[in-house]
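The methods section describes the discrete structure representation at length, but only in general terms. What matters is that the chain and its backbone geometry are given together, residue for residue. Nothing conveys this as quickly as seeing an actual entry. For illustration, here is how one protein appears when written out as sequence plus structure tokens:
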Amino acid sequence: MTNVFLNGKFLPVADASVCVMDRGFLFGDGVYEVIPVYNNKIFFFDKHFKRLKNSLKGVDIKNPYNKEQISNIIKKLLHNNKKQTVAIYLQITRGADKTRSHVYSKNMNPTIFINIFDFKNQSLDKIDPIDVITTDDNRGKICNLKTINLLANIMQKQQAHNLQTDEAIFIRRGFAQEGGASNLFLIKNNVIYTPPLSSTILPGITREIIIDITLKNNIKIIEKNIRFNELFLADELWLTSSTKEIRYVGLINKRSIGNIKDHKKPMMWYKVMNLFNALK
């Protein structure tokens, strides 16, 4: 049985429980991080911790642990579960109050929960294209914070699932934003494009890594708004996240992208994935 961490204790997941007055349960009042671990190496932990601090600050929740403490908790979880390559799920809520109220007390102790889950770390030759749909973006304007209040994302991901596709790309006022749980990249004429960060786009860690490695390897990358119709004219489309890594799109709204119809791996994707894998 999986061993988890909850409010200072390591215990079996079946024994872990939180108070029903916890604001994460009542309001979705909290933030989270998903951090990959490869062969016991916590991947770009500094970047994930920095984003966690930014999310906590953005929703006015105090951080119960410093970076070293969280790193040590993760290492102990890996040891307890005898795992080396997994993803870490870390969630911090505002905590439990005496009554249910939209106005929160400043004196609550945050609830911190850390779990691990398996994810596929496949070789490039075994990675298949994903199929996506586009959907109207009905989310709010704090998407730049990694909060646990994900109802809009859940509904759009479920819509994609019901249509037997893998992801939904949000469209807002004619421009592509990101996926339900991923950032977006478009490749055209050997140039990589990605929407600039805003209140409607999460500052993805994989997104940041891709920008860094492409610039260091003289691959042209530009942050610009991507129009809806440009998606269908792309040579390649990618969706990225900490657990997806970099996945290339085969079909968008049932239309083929680039040379996918010829059953070839996208050239730019293959190049950048090799650079990405070299960091593990």
Remarks:
- The longest helix spans residues 45-58.
